[in-house]
Specification:
single chain; 384 residues; alpha+beta; Gamma Fibrinogen, Chain A, domain 1; nine-stranded antiparallel sheet; two-stranded antiparallel sheet; binds calcium ion; glycoprotein; Angiopoietin-like 5; signal; FIB_ANG-like
Length: 384
């Protein structure tokens, strides 16, 4: 009975000791498990090993404490890093946005500047359009070169030759002309100039009506413009044709009256009395050659006297313009004059006449080769 009681007491004391020891390990165990639940499985394994060893080396509570402190430190560092990362990210985004704002500001500044320029340009275009279509578009220098000469004579000691703007009376158009102010007392409006053959005079009707070429060089002023000049009220015009031959001989043909009918009459030419040294090629030697009162013809508008055709030499001609190098002129059948053909030693091809003609100007009975020609008109003083 005494032995049994002793054994029971021993077992009880062992159980109590074991319980105390077990409680000491379990007091913080739930917290440790919960707190370490996010640590990786590999991280827990050494702890288990430590736990397994603690019975003989480091106690569980100290290991847990160390681990907790380490975890708190890591968490703190992580939090700091996250905060720093957040701060730098926010700063970066702020910088990027500021950069974008600055770029946008620069771009919108450039856009505004461009818009302003476009505005300025379009207002300028509108203004010049308005000027172009205004009733009095350009300040003209006079009605024609004779008028300009008369107007400037008292004010300017020497009036220079060159391009002037004229506005013939009773017309609504102003246009540029070349005025010869030196030749034979000046006042000449140039209506045609052929010198180097560089300009193309193979032109259709519309070009001969409107004019073409360069006023300072080779050009045809245009039938409409010449018509406006010579049809002014109370004026009479003379026509002067100045010729230079290939061997540098100068000659001229002059008509004391020159006018044109309007376009409905195909700008029919009317010539007064002839004077000069080159002969009256406009009228020729017989009525068939006479070009006075002939309407104007061009390659595409045939008003010549060959209707339906002429026999000239060995060839049959239907269009004098085509026969004469596709130029425009007052052709009859076809005639001895065509100042719009090519200057110099232009070749005759397939019987066609390609060079400047004034066939009454001859040397030893042979028509001279003409190097250059100018047709100019000037007012004749009238009593009125
Ligand atoms: Ca014909």
């Amino acid at each position: 009975m005494m032995w049994t009681t002793t054994v029971l007491l021993l077992l009880f004391s062992l159980l109590v000791a074991s319980a105390i020891q077990g409680n000491g390990g379990n007091l913080s165990q739930p917290e440790t498990d919960e707190e370490l639940s996010d640590t990786p499985a590999e991280g827990r394994k050494p702890f288990g090993e430590v736990k397994g060893q603690d019975t003989c080396s480091v106690p569980c509570d100290i290991a847990a404490k160390l681990l907790r402190e380490e975890k708190h430190s890591i968490c703190g560092q992580l939090q700091q890093s996250l905060l720093a990362f957040g701060r730098s990210t926010r700063k970066l985004m702020r910088d990027v946005m500021e950069e974008q704002h600055r770029a946008l500001d620069v771009l919108s500044g450039q856009v505004s500047e461009l818009m302003a320029r476009v505005q300025t340009l379009s207002s300028e275009v509108q203004r010049s359009n308005a000027e172009m279509f205004s009733v009095e578009p350009v300040q003209s220098h006079g009605r024609d070169c004779s008028d300009i000469k008369n107007n400037l004579m008292s004010a300017v000691p020497k009036i220079p030759s060159g391009i002037y703007i004229v506005h013939p009376e009773d017309t609504d158009s102003s246009f540029e002309v070349f005025c010869e102010m030196d030749y034979m007392e000046g006042g000449w409006t140039v209506m045609q100039r052929r010198t180097d053959g560089l300009s193309d005079f193979k032109r259709p009707w519309a070009d001969y009506v409107d004019g073409f070429g360069h006023l300072a060089g080779e050009h045809w002023l245009g039938l409409t413009k010449v018509f406006h000049i010579v049809n002014q009220k109370d004026t009479r015009f003379q026509l002067h044709i100045a010729l230079v031959s290939l061997d540098d001989v100068a000659s001229y043909a002059s008509y004391d009256d020159f006018r044109l009918d309007d376009e409905t009459q195909f700008f029919r030419i009317h010539l007064g009395r002839y004077a000069g040294s080159a002969g009256d090629a406009f009228r020729g030697y017989d009525q068939e050659q006479n070009q006075d009162t002939a309407p104007f013809s061009a390659p595409d508008v045939d008003n010549d006297g060959c209707n339906p055709s002429c026999t000239l030499g060995n060839s049959t001609v239907e269009s004098c313009s085509v026969q004469h190098n596709h130029t425009g002129w007052w052709f009859n059948r076809c005639g001895l004059a065509n100042l719009n053909a090519s200057p110099g030693e232009a070749e005759q091809s397939r019987g066609r006449r390609t060079h400047i003609l004034w066939d009454t100007w001859r040397r030893s009975g042979v028509p001279r080769t003409i190097r250059s020609v100018t047709m100019k008109i000037r007012r004749i003083a009238t009593n009125s």
